[in-house]
């Protein structure tokens, strides 16, 4: 003990658990009349948003929901989704579980059971999938419907029938707007659960804590350049890594969140022009949607809009086209296990003077760590020593710090493996450049990232093997101008069998969500090692050529 320890203990006066809930409370107190949420014709001030979050927390508490209970939501980018990011953890420490709205019923059922969900809030757009999932799930959560009053009459997806005990508006009305939310007992308490595809069919449940969410919200505000009162457009699904923590980050600067149910060019351009949008995020498909829109769907707008994109780095031509269209693109990288992006391609202004090929090379790099990430390294996973920073030597990307998950729910073995040696092992292979910027080279987990969503190649292969004509198969990523990547299947057929490509894809659709199905099926002998192992590296090369030819 030193002189700086004696009599200098933590007390309620000098130490409180970090939580992003405090950001919303501060914004509501400081800017009660400032617009917090825009959804179609609806407008919510910060005072209104705080009141709704208190109502949700109160209604959940009255139903017996509290610390450690899972509240699952199957919602679009609508006000209830923003409410849930605050109101659920405000319910005496309940945990928010956001379900990918593109999931198939079997995946939804697995997650509900694994998470032991006590409540499920469902947008009626997804009620059919939810109903099928609930029929096979072992758990029986309290089901609440959300009937969106802004749902258009000419919507491309009709609303399903109600499946819950009441509508969300009625449930909210049960709550007390003056409810006093409890704080987390410990900043290490869980705040959110997100499922991520791994190398097996069933996803792993990534558990995030209040401290990480609070720090990553501030990180997002800093690295995304959220100035005072930003206007953030929801083109990124809020179910994806909790919307990269932006539901918690925007209130840091008392900004406005503009909801968007579907990513459509016309609606995006209208929102930017009508509401003065300053920031948005998304996968490469969002950029494609903006750039390839017909002229009659585009609108001019003042200033430049900051666009954060993850997944593969955008090509130089796309970056130029985005700049010409009024968008300033920043490339970020991360995983669900790191609360979304935790690495940013921090751009040096001096690089603007470099020749085009050198400038493009720097833009292809993933970058450097976020502020709250203690360390980012490229290491030999066997020796746990950093690889030379030569831009050539491959190693595994590893993370350490407060931007890393608590671990995997009910999976101590996977958690121990992920944290072996005191680092989080990403499974991504990269090089470290002399200036400390990392650059990805491959994905050791064989995960395909399509439209910003992770697809397990093994899950697709398992469905292919259920086809009676398939003898052997392998699935790899194929480049896609629109989606970034799509699954490409290589199939060896049983003797005498001759299905068409369309037949095999149709079979996949009977057991997989549409976005997980192969966009191409190639028939023929698979390259193998002397021991019979399929050489996926050769198939990746072939798929890459196919994708480039198609582009």
UniProtKB/TrEMBL annotation:
Listed InterPro entries: AMP-bd_C, AMP-bd_C_sf, AMP-binding_CS, AMP-dep_synth/lig_dom, ANL_N_sf
Which part of the chain is the AMP-binding enzyme C-terminal domain? 459-533
Q: Where is the AMP-dependent synthetase/ligase domain?
A: 25-409
The record's annotation in CDD domains points to: ttLC_FACS_AEE21_like
Under the heading SUPFAM superfamilies, the entry gives: Acetyl-CoA synthetase-like
Superkingdom classification of source: Bacteria
Q: Which PROSITE patterns match?
A: AMP_BINDING (PS00455)
| Keywords (A to Z) from UniProt | Fatty acid metabolism, Ligase, Lipid metabolism
Q: Which family does it belong to?
A: Belongs to the ATP-dependent AMP-binding enzyme family.
Q: What is this protein called?
A: Acyl-CoA synthetase
Q: Identify the species of origin.
A: Paracoccus maritimus
